[in-house]
Amino acid sequence: MPIKPSETLETFPNPDPARDYTIHIDNPEFTCLCPKTGQPDFAVLNLAYVPDQLCVELKSLKLYFWSYRDKGAFHEAVTNQILEDLVNAIQPRFMRLTAEFNVRGGLYTTVVAEHQQQGWTAPAQVHLP
Question: What is the domain range of residue 69?
Fold first, then answer.
């Protein structure tokens, strides 16, 4: 059992690449460090993506998130870096990362970063009664 964080994102083949479906992953315990003060910043990460050929393996994702615990990063930078790393690893049709940072100095920060594969169009949303 690994006892340390890892920056490696493992993948596995999408079990149904012919279908557009959404995977939601929430991490309520994300931590990184403020690059100005070195104090911890806490966030809830909400990841949603439509896979193409690959999906991200959850244990590796957990260890990847853990790797930020001792890194200094601005909220905007860390959110965009995580999105970029995930997009590079699995090349999804669509991915959205929402990072909701806890209050610091009376301010809440929410950063939303998105990726959309060129040529992909989201299917129309169905509303049922």
Answer: 22-116
